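User: My advisor, Dr. K., asked me to get a structural model of this assembly before our group meeting. I'm new to this, so sorry if the format is off. These are the inputs:
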Amino acid sequence: MVGHTFTSVMKIPMRNVHVLVIGAGIGGLTAALALQRAGLKVSVFEAALQLGELGAGLTISPNATHALEYVGLGPYMAEHGDKPETGASVHYQTGEVLYYTQRNSEFREKYGAEYYQIHRADVHGALADAVRANDANAIHLSHAFKSFVQSGETVSATFANGQSLTGDVLIGCDGVRSVVRGELFGVEVPRFTGQVAFRGLVDAEPVREHIVPTPSSTAMGPGRIFTRYFVRKGKLVNFVGIARTDAWKEEGWRIPATVDEMLSVYSDFNEHARAIIKSTPPGQLFKWALFDRNPLPQWTKGRVTLLGDAAHAMLPFLGMGAAMGFEDGAIIGRCFEASSTIDEALARYEKARKERTTMVLLNSRKQGSVYQSDNPASMRGQTSGELRLGLFDYNVKTVEV
Ligand SMILES: Cc1cc2nc3c(=O)[nH]c(=O)nc-3n(C[C@H](O)[C@H](O)[C@H](O)COP(=O)(O)OP(=O)(O)OC[C@H]3O[C@@H](n4cnc5c(N)ncnc54)[C@H](O)[C@@H]3O)c2cc1C
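Assistant: The format is fine. Below is the predicted structure of the whole assembly, which you can bring to the meeting.
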């Protein structure tokens, strides 16, 4: 690949700025689209040989929907997203509804955006298609980032395949175990939380009678929750179980688990949850241990910054990890659009995003103990954490940057 080098100048017209995005995940592709929308040249570098996503569902809350609409995916979401009217939190044994959460019946009016559930691969593929529609050569696969060097007004990235490239800005969107973050601030050893998660995606038809009382629900038990919802227009059921145990401690999205292993953790959950777990085909159940990282005091050094999980990996209890990446991506585009220098754009971005993502990260930590109460019946009549914290009120299109 031919390097693209700018000479050192104090102020580059923003349209000539070349941004190196490391990682073609949800955050990196959203940022790429928003920066392309702002008129910048964007090159995205992805370690994987092919673009692909986990076989898993994703909750797109109204704040995330605003970000997807900002980068032009509103019509895609409206066509392909599942839109639950309500969610139910239920007692793990009796199935009694402890509280309902109204969703689309009132969200468009209240927040100006829908609440969707969708297959991760679908929204990820739509983002990648949109980036390539703007620039067919924007995404470079098999480019595992290794290190960067900043020199004057430029930053050069080196990749494991031996290539290197120089641009004006580098954004580390390389996920929870970010190499860019390690290069910037040193490698942090995350804390094991004593919790593990399981995930699966199954055909809906054989388990349809077990989808009660609502299409989207979370069963709450002592030290465990089991969440499930539809994706692909009701054809598939996505489930995630999170349980307190320190039986093993591996971090990673693709560690195989067995149905028997998950059932042994959920043996006292009601028949509906167990039937869904049992229906998982061999090789389609995965597990990962939950590790906690502290918020970073700073994201940016010179021309290098962080975005998405690389900046603020959080526990999954508020279901906001991807939402924060979508928001970051839209906002970094707006910051470049609103600024006349790169330094100004990066300062605006960090200022606009750090406080909110830190608040969500810290509350995701707290929410774990709320959901995994030893006495689930005490949850009767509660309000869901995201609503209580007003997380859906945030609109990337209008928030000050
Ligand atoms: C099963 C599951 C369910 C989830 N459900 C939800 C949900 O419902 N709602 C929600 O908001 N969040 C959810 N999350 C969290 C959410 O998926 C993450 O927060 C989100 O994916 C973070 O996006 P990201 O782009 O920062 O990182 P990632 O999506 O992890 O993308 C990082 C990308 O960088 C690439 N990469 C890594 N290292 C390098 C390197 N050295 N060089 C180049 N490329 C590299 C990776 O291959 C990857 O493509 C869920 C997570 C999981 C695993």
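One thing worth pointing out at the meeting: The chain is about 30% helix and 25% strand.

User: Perfect, thanks a lot.
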